[in-house]
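Pasting as-is:
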Amino acid sequence: MAHSTPASDGPERPDGTAYPRARSEAEWREELAPDEYRVLRAGGTEAPFTGAYTDNHDVGVYRCRACRAELFRSDARFDSHCGWPSFFTPLAGDSVILLEDTSLGMMRTEVRCASCGGHLGHVFTGEGYATPTDQRYCINSVSLTFEPT
């Protein structure tokens, strides 16, 4: 079975409803830089410790780089030292969609933007971080923009 990606899955959420900010793949290719497209639409991952927000500690809101939807707030960010920005919860439970991902021969949970379907990263549970949810939303910096407050 082929790996599921936002580009291959199309403009609908897993429940069959349309993503509110869906675009054609041609439009995404035109709007996004190649590295942004590779992560957000093709389900890629940026190299660890290279992203713009890996060590960002400013106060503000993290938005989806593709559609600008609000995803995470800085007060839910923590230092996991994993190489990518980490959050213990999304801004609102319905700002992201979680999907089963077995692409690497193991079970992971993929995180996608609920507004446009863009691939953001993965969420891991039970790793022992001292966070209120015991979750680590491990998100690619290239999937995000940051709006300081």
